[in-house]
Specification:
Elements (H helix, E strand, L loop, with lengths): L5 H12 L2 H13 L15 H29 L5 H22 L3 H22 L5
Helix pairs in contact: 1-3, 1-4, 2-3, 3-4, 3-5, 4-5
Length: about 130
């Protein structure tokens, strides 16, 4: 019996999404003049939207390992189905929206997207542990 690869494809896409907010940071760095001798020291010079993009980028590094663990849990336990695929796929636009709302400085919607992302992760883990589904 073969297991659906959709969650693994979502895992690869989520890894790529980590760097999407950094595109905004890179653009802002070019606008203010990139200092290659001290690239991290430039943070205070960045406009507020780019600082928030940096934080969104950093938060993606915090969220991704949990999603990766959840996907690997369902994959290794051979759990599959519509709910698994839906949760894995839903995580992607949720994280995209999270970054958008973070950069746009809309904290309530950002927090809602963070919570939805955690629901996706928790749901996948619960399915893997046979608590639901």
């Amino acid at each position: 019996m073969s297991v659906s690869l959709i969650p693994l494809y979502c895992l690869a896409a989520a890894a790529a999404l980590i760097y999407l907010p950094f595109v905004v940071v890179a653009f802002a760095r070019l606008q203010i003049g990139l200092d290659y001798s001290a690239p991290r020291a430039m943070f205070d010079k960045l406009p507020p939207y780019a600082q928030r993009a940096t934080w969104a980028h950093q938060n993606a590094f915090e969220s991704f390992p949990l999603f990766a663990a959840a996907v690997l849990m369902v994959y290794l336990t051979h759990r599959e189905g519509t709910l698994v695929n839906t949760l894995a796929i839903a995580y992607l636009p949720v994280r995209l929206a999270y970054s958008f709302f973070y950069i746009a400085d809309i904290p309530p919607l950002r927090s809602a997207m963070w919570a939805l992302g955690m629901v996706c992760i928790g749901g996948l883990m619960a399915i893997a542990l046979r608590l639901v589904g």
